[in-house]
Predict the 3D structure of the following.
Amino acid sequence: MSETAIKPRIEKIPLKDQLFQKLPVLLVPLLAVAGLIAIGNPASWLTLTVAGLAMGMMIFIMASGLTVVFGLMDVINFGHGAFVAVGAFVGFTVLAWLAGWTASPSVMLNLAAVLIAILVAMLVTGLLGLAFERVIVMPVYGEHLKQILVTMGGLIVAQQMIYVVWGPDELHLSRPQAFQGALVIGEAAIEKYRLVAVGIGLALFLAMRHILKNTKIGLLVRAGVENGEMVEALGYRIRRLFLIVFMTGSALAGLGGVMWGLYQETITAHMGSEIMVLVFIVVIIGGLGSVEGCFIGALLVGLLANYTAFLAPKVALVSTIALMVVILMWRPQGLYPVVKAK
Amino acid sequence: MLTRLLSGDTPRSGLLTVLLLIVLVSLAFAPFLFPGTKSLETAARICIFIVLVASYDLLLGYAGIVSFAHTMFFGIGAYGTALALSTTGPNYGSLIWGTAAGAVVAALFALAIGLFSLRVKAIFFAMVTLAVASAFAVLVSQMSWLTGGEDGLNYRIPRELTPAFKLIDAKILDVRVNGKLLAYYLVFLVSVILFLVMLRIVNSPFGRTLKAVRDNAFRAEAIGYRVVWYRTTATVLSAVMAALAGSLLAIWLRYTGPATTLSMEIMIDILLMVVIGGMGTLYGAVLGATLFILAQTYLQTLMGVAADATSAVPLLPILVAPERWLLWLGVLFILSVYFFPSGIVGRLRAGRA
């Protein structure tokens, strides 16, 4: 028997199946082309596409943490929106302190102010994530019903605490000088801030992909998503890993909150729960637990929302629901279902 | 006879029975016991919300499904009645067909959402309903040609239900017997009937199976029950009940708008009422709704007093300010999910054993 050792056999996936798996990637350009045909005017199409991509990237930043947390620990955090709102409020407070920096025409000072605001916001939401995980989520692992209820309760409390700290009014803040205004390419006007948002989102996606694919911690996270018990059996503390992921996800939600706040220039305590609707749609479209699916889903939702807002403003949110329905009819588990080996 | 009326599901706790009787008697004689417009409004709201919360409990407590679209069904019912009354005039015919149409539309929506998303996972359903419900709320506030947009609809109801109508000239116990009183008793009686119907549903073989599905879907499926069918039916039933509660609200308020029927705040209120009252028992809905609405109406006054009293201490007055009552209910909500998931009713029943 010994000479016929059992060899691991890796089956080659047929080309057809490989293509089928890659198919969702094509959806984004397909939607962009469809948008071009429907809109007709290339200049406004370009403006809308950049706006859509920027919106998609911001949603991706907020949604990525949620989906990885779900994949890893089977925890869905309905209070995720609270981190978005808290991040935005903290970021705005910091920017208001640094008003001298943001108003100055110097690009470096502007960037520094935004960077500091983002870092502080991420730090605060990361720590808040730590508290949230320890106090609210940890006692109800494995019980979906209680998780939904408890995290919803966490959201209520967090929103009320925002009122306590920052008062009931919404905050306004104009963007730093460097991010105001638009670039004009041909006839298309593209807001500078949207390009920045696309840049940050893309960088973040690539970094996340790199970490997940090429580092040990990424390997552990992916292994944990597939089979948590086995990772534990090999001697890794999956709870601690999960805590890190949860905190990172919360910090990213905070980052998304600051970016969204700067995009809208107005923030309210309820912004979190409003954005969560889009985030949930994206997470469902992408397949719960999948980062790539989340990315594609976010871009699709962002583009579609902007195209329909231009073509038929009244049905903008409904169109994203329709997109979700269509995608779920095609792939009931989302674009990239995460396969659980349990 | 009484046990039959309650479908064999008696409160099973002395204190609970007393509390429920207090609620029943207070609601039944509310116009006479607590004169004044505000208390009558509160009593009617309690009646309507008892039905609404009980119908949500049918889903959450008995079927173990979390839905965030319950206000959508509530709103469909309210808008059905409101649209019928405002388009075809204030008569009983339009009242009835509007209510029926609302219930049917709610049932169809529930069926579609249920068949679509209940196959996968409970968590999925929660997310899908959240998305659909908020899209629906946005749609309603934008279709202003039909729904009046953010302003909502004002309409007239049959004259016999308005304060202008006098049944008899004499006063009973110092209370005018006018249409408003009739409207209140209409709301009260329909609420009682709907509640008893729901009690019947959850104590029927169907209700038992629903509990089995909740506790172990896999095993229920293995025994031969079609889990998806049971879950979808529960969703549809609870949607219809919510729609009927919405119609009651539409009749009572003579106004229907997004803020009173569709908003996320109401959804969160319902969630709080169910959990604090007690999941998986309809009596919990009674206590939860009553306490919550009383708190909503009167606790704020109390907190105002507390805020004044503690004004010397830093930070504390902000925390107990009247606007922050939801904060404390949120904390109470989290604590109740952890420590007594069966709510007040569960506590009372456990205390007896």
